[in-house]
Design a protein that fits this description.
This protein has about 300 residues and is α/β, with parallel strands linked by helices. The protein has 12 helices and 7 strands. The protein has a 7-stranded mixed β-sheet with strand order 3-2-1-4-6-5-7, sandwiched between helices. Helix 5 crosses helix 12, helix 9 crosses helix 10 and helix 11 packs antiparallel against helix 12.
């Protein structure tokens, strides 16, 4: 069976990246699926995002332009309402795709596991600055912690690169929350739908190069559990947030033993955003400040 597939790309001021990611999507090997549509929703971008996307010249690419910025959640909901295919892939516009088989791998994983939600492996690009070296250390420590923790699939479900079958995407409405990765996972599990993770379906992303952008990202990530509790309730959310404080402290101890100097620097970077979130728990909603240094990939 060949599945009909739509790729949905939310974009806000992605002129530097949209052309590259579209070429990568359109150049994918279509094994087990047919790519029938690529929707690019430019969320009131003020750069050439829409112009570059249209210039690709492929009839499968449809560009939607928002006149007022509405935020990622609203953009996703609009694209899902447009899709009619067996499945959709939600892909961040600043993703780096280096293989022509990543979509095939997600589709195969969906089929083999009868999964309504499938996520790929999102990895940081190699570090080019001291700031990024610290962040790579944090990512690696976090991934090790996930691998050591039973029932930790929710943490693997990154919002940058996910496939949803029609029985999920046609019946889901994203709320105005910054936790766009955690939300579909909890919805799927609470509805009794299967989730699967394909570690071989790899895409890449750029880490921040400035502390301001790191701070913006961290405060958004750290607020995710509170926003999910407001939607689903504490009892439901606690079923899926399986990594506790003790687990995190053990993870910190492990990276200090391996890389004491770098670990100390990374810990110092985390103090301010963690303190701010602890004192002022507040979800940014559907709109948040963009980490601009993560977009400068070319």
């Amino acid at each position: 069976m060949k599945y009909a597939l739509t790729v949905c790309i939310p974009a806000y001021n992605e002129a530097q990246n949209i052309g590259r990611v579209l070429h990568a999507v359109l150049g994918q090997e279509q094994s087990g699926y047919e790519l029938t549509r690529v929707i690019v929703y430019s969320d009131a971008s003020v750069d050439a995002t829409s112009t570059i996307a249209r210039a690709i010249g492929d009839k499968r690419v449809e560009v939607v332009e928002g006149s007022v910025r509405s935020g990622k959640a609203a953009v996703i909901n609009h694209m899902f309402s447009m899709a009619q295919t067996d499945a959709v892939v939600l892909l961040d516009a600043d993703s780096i795709i280096t293989s022509n088989q990543v979509l095939s791998k997600l589709v195969r994983c969906m089929h083999e596991h009868n999964a309504s939600l499938v996520s790929g492996s999102c990895k940081p690009l190699p570090a080019r600055s001291f700031m990024q070296r610290l962040l790579v250390l944090g990512v690696e420590a976090w991934q090790e912690l996930i691998s050591r923790t039973p029932n930790s699939d929710m943490y693997r479900c990154g919002g940058q690169f996910v496939l949803m079958r029609k029985d999920l995407y046609a019946h889901i409405t994203y709320p105005k929350t910054s936790a766009d990765d955690v939300y579909p996972y909890i919805v799927a599990k609470e509805r009794g739908l299967n989730y699967a993770y394909d570690v071989t379906a790899e895409i890449y992303y750029k880490l921040p190069t400035t502390y301001r952008d790191f701070f913006r990202q961290q405060t958004r990530f750290l607020n995710a559990d509170a926003s999910m509790e407001a939607i689903f309730g504490t009892d439901v959310v606690q079923k899926y947030y399986t990594i506790g404080v003790i687990d995190k402290l053990k993870g910190v101890a492990r990276i200090f033993l391996k890389h004491p100097a770098l670990a100390m620097c990374y810990a110092l970077m985390l103090i301010f955003p963690k303190l701010l979130v602890a004192l002022f728990k507040h979800d940014t909603g559907g709109l948040w400040a963009i980490a601009e240094s993560t977009k400068e990939i070319l």
